[in-house]
Amino acid sequence: MSRGLQIASGISVLFTTLAFGHIMVHDTQHMMSHHEDNQFFIVAHTIVAIALGVLSLAGGFCLLTNRPRQNSN
Question: Is residue 54 a contact partner of residue 17, using CB atoms and an 8 Å limit?
C-alpha cells in the first residue's frame, strides 16, 4: 500500500472514530433518560462502545505510524 493511501486511511479511521464516539455519547445520554429500570443494558452498551472505540483508535494509529518493512537480504 502506498504511503499516501496509508495516511489517508489512518486519518479517515480517526475521524470515523470521533464521529462514532460523538454518536455513542448522545445515544447513551438518550438511553439514560428513557431506560432508568434497565441499568445493565446501559452498562453493557457503554463497555462495548468503549472497547470498539479503543480498537478503532488503535487501528488508526497503526495505519498512521506503520513504517515500510525492511528486507533482511
Answer: no
pLDDT, tens digit (0-9, with 9 covering 90-100), for 16-56: 888 888 888 888 888 778 766 677 887 888 888 889 888 88
CA distances from residue 13 to 26, 28, 30, 44, 57 in whole angstroms, order as listed: 20, 22, 26, 24, 7
CA distance 58 to 42: 24
Q: Give the global pTM.
A: 0.68
CA–CA gap between residue 12 and residue 6 (Å, rounded): 10
> What nine digits make up the cell of 41?
443494558
